[in-house]
Design a protein that fits this description.
With 117 residues, this protein is mainly β. Helix content is 0%, strand content 55%.
Length: 117
């Protein structure tokens, strides 16, 4: 079993910055990818940024050039630096982890990000 702990989020003004972190813990964490998804009421959860099995990082079109995903702790932690925030970045951000050989998926509980003046 894998547990995802999310940190960060909160309120920011347009043009401001926030940082989200997610730490994975589990006794048998295998090869995996991690990422952040965003959900707003009435819409499907969408990818914000995530790693791929080849080590590359994918970004949602709306955040390219503003958000940066990084990782540490041997790949068990990811950080999302969000700069130049816009009101449309508001939503609940969920950390996701997929063990691509086991075929398992895990989600964090979500953290609220609100961008408003």
């Amino acid at each position: 079993q894998v547990e995802l702990m999310e940190f960060g989020g909160g309120l920011a003004q347009p043009g401001g910055s926030l940082r989200l972190s997610c730490v994975a813990s589990g006794s048998s964490l295998s090869l995996h990818v991690m990422g952040w998804y965003r959900q707003v009421p009435g819409k499907q959860r969408e990818l914000v940024a995530g790693t791929s099995s080849d080590g590359s990082i994918n970004y949602g079109d709306s955040v390219k050039g503003r958000f940066t995903l990084s990782g540490d702790n041997g790949g068990a932690a990811i950080h999302l630096q969000m700069n130049n925030l816009m009101p449309e970045d508001t939503g609940v951000y969920y950390c996701h982890l997929a063990e691509y050989y086991k075929g398992t998926n895990y989600w964090g509980r979500g953290t609220q990000v609100t961008v408003s003046s």
